[in-house]
Structures are given as structure tokens and as C-alpha cells.
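User: Um, any thoughts?
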Amino acid sequence: MKQVIVSAVNTKEYQGMKSPVLLGLIYDDLVRLLKFIYNAQKQGSLIGSFCFTNQIAYLDLFWHQFILHTRLYSEFCQTELGGFLHHDPEPESKESGAVGTVQAEVFIEQLNLLEKDMGKEFAQRVFFIYPELLK
């Protein structure tokens, strides 16, 4: 499953120019993030959709490729999550920057929750390290 998604992302989004090892690490963290989102929504600690800011739009690209492989995604959701995790697109912000003013408060709440549940190292990787490595 991982190799299928990593290959699809590298082919379609990066024209085969990114390291499969790096993309594999990002895929692993996407899986962790999807589990976090599913569990946080189920427990009620995350209200609504997770905010995919411009800074982590690359994770949304991975998720989109995953969803396009419907059988793999459905199997993943049932096996790893225990239920289906829907993707709810966010309305596009007309403001530049990582977070629009309207989303800023929600983003901060979600980042705090993510750091609390997944650790600061995880948040640092997905919000700062991976975006730099993908430039």
C-alpha cells in the first residue's frame, strides 16, 4: 500500500524528483496524522475537519492520492482506524500565508491538540522539516 501511494505522489506531484525514502517517511506520518484525526473526531476533542494549512498542503496531496486508490483507502480505514475517515475539503482562504485570519484560532487549537497527543517532534516534522525538504 505504502509503495503504491508514494509512487503515485512522486510521479504526479513531483515528477519523480523526490526521494522515495523521504516520501515514505511522510507517508508514515500521514498515517499517524489520519489516526490522530479519526480518534480526535471520535472522542470529540477535534471539532470539525482538521485544518490543512498551506504549510502542510503536501500532506493533503498525499491524502488525495490515497483516497484515489479507493480499495486501499477503504481497507486502511477499516483495518487501521475501525471506520471510514471522510475528507472534507476546506473553503479556500483568500488571504496569503499559512493560515487565514478566520482559521487562525482553529489552527492554534488543533496544533496544540496535535502536539499534546502526538508530541512536539511530530508537529515539528510535519509543519517545518518536511516542507523545507520538499522545496
User: Anything to note?
Assistant: The two ends are 25 Å apart (CA to CA). The chain has six helices and no strands. Residues 11 and 125 are 23 Å apart (CA to CA). Helices lie at 2-13, 20-43, 57-68, 70-81, 101-118, 120-133.
